[in-house]
Every structure is written in C-alpha cells, then in structure tokens.
Amino acid sequence: MGLKKEIKDYIIITFGLILIAIGIHFFLVPHNLAAGGLTGLAMVINHYIPNLSIGIIMLIGNIFFFVIGFIFIGKAFGTKTIYSSLMLSVIISILEKVAPISKPISQDILINLIFGILIGAIGMAIVFNRNASTGGTDIPAKILNKYAHLEIGKGLLIIDFSITLLAVIAFGATTGMYALLGVIINGSMVDFVIDGLNITKRIEIMSSKTEEIRKFIIEELGRSATIYRAIGAYNLEKSDVLITVMGKKEFIKLRNFIKEVDPCAFIITHNVHEVLGEGFGNILD
C-alpha cells in the first residue's frame, strides 16, 4: 500500500510539474515575465546568454542551490523536492525542443500573465499538496531563516523582489512591474488552490434516526463519528448530536441517505481546510 501511494504521489507531482512548465513556457517566457523564483532568474540570465536555454539554466541552478543547501542546511531535502525541482527543469527543456515559441500566444501581456500564473499556481498547489516543492529559491530562503532568523515567507519575498528588480533592468520597467504583479498573484493563487484541494466537510446531524445514520457512516462510508448528548433549548428535550468529518463526495452520499431515513433531520455543514489524523493527513508531515 505504501509503494502504491508513493507511485501515485509521483504521478500526481509530475502532472503538477507539467502544468507549471506549460504556464512558464507558453505564457510567461514569451513576454519575459520573470515572476520571481529560479524560473525568473533563469529568464534574466537567458536574456544575456541566449545560447543557454531556460531549462538548462534551471537545471544548473537547482544543482547549485542543492549543493549550497547541503553545505549550509544539511540533509533537509526530501526526495520528492529533489525530484520535483530537477524534473521541472527537464520538462521545460523538452518543451523548448518539441514546442518552441517564436511569438507570444497573445499580444496582451496581462492575458499571458494571468493565464501563465493561473496554470502554474494550480500546478504548484498540486506539488505542494503532495509534500514536495520545486526547490530553487526556497533553499536560499531557508538559509536566511537559519542564519539571519528571517521568516521563510519574508525571505522568499525578498528574493523574488530582487529577481523582479533584475527583470526591470533586463526587460524594462513595464515588464518588470508586470512580473512583480505576477509574484503577488501567484502567492495568493497557490494558497487559494491548496485550500480548495483540501476542503473537507464537518457535519453536525440532529436526527431521530441517529443509530441508522451512525451505522451508514461507519459501514458504508468507512468514516467515524462522535456523538454528543444535547438538550434542545426550545423544549428542553434530550437528543443526540452526531458529528463527523468527510470528503465532499462522501457527504453527498450521506445527505441522500439521511433524506431517505429522516427527511426531518437537522444538518449543519462547515468547510474545513485541513484535517490531520487517522483517515486524513499525516500529523507528522
């Protein structure tokens, strides 16, 4: 089961990396939108050394950052992060060979920025959601955190801002400001997509058929639940409140079952963005 999960994780991570590469290659690179990170730095270097492709520069950069990371941080890199960072460079190199871009898909720089960041952010969220990252400038941010006691988020912001300043020098103020806008949008979009991927339902059920519902949750849905004894404020009658957490698809099945056994049941649902523990995320990750 562990090996199957690992294989599944790497397949999903690879899909996320393909999305990131598509966003970079087809939308950001043609307009020189160096929106931070190692990708942005590679675009700036490629501007001055065009014989070096962006994919190759990223590959060299990732190897360099990993060596620096091992020296200053130690073996704090998971195999998934090493795989993700190197594979992203490889995928971009492949795209540069099989689908070279001679001109932007759209002449509207803002349209390219939005689509490039949106597609890339979905890919990054998928990668992050599988406990991996694309490496790159994450590593110098961790070094700053260790030696300068600077929060990783602030370290990344400083590094990305520095790269967008280089983009201003290389590509002009307008393109550089678009790149900075891309940095801001990307951070927000990644958080938004990760929240959407991880949403589960917390459900509170008050019903005269608590036992039937409890059995359905455990036997049919494979989930557990907690039952509280409550007193109704209106008539002071004692009743049970059943509380459970499950995915959106499971909740639809549960809701349909409750409609059949007790149409008068009272149900409250909440969107929960993270659940850790048995049957959900590993609390140790």
TrEMBL record:
For this UniProt record, the keywords arranged alphabetically read as follows: Cell membrane, Membrane, Transmembrane, Transmembrane helix
Q: Name one GO cellular component term.
A: plasma membrane
The record gives the membrane topology as: Multi-pass membrane protein
User: Where is each DUF2179 domain found?
Assistant: 223-277
Q: Name one Pfam family in it.
A: DUF2179
Give TM regions.
Answer: 7-28, 48-73, 109-129
Q: Which domain of life is it from?
A: Bacteria
Q: Which locations, inside or outside the cell, does it occupy?
A: Cell membrane
Quote the protein name from its UniProt record. Answer: Membrane protein
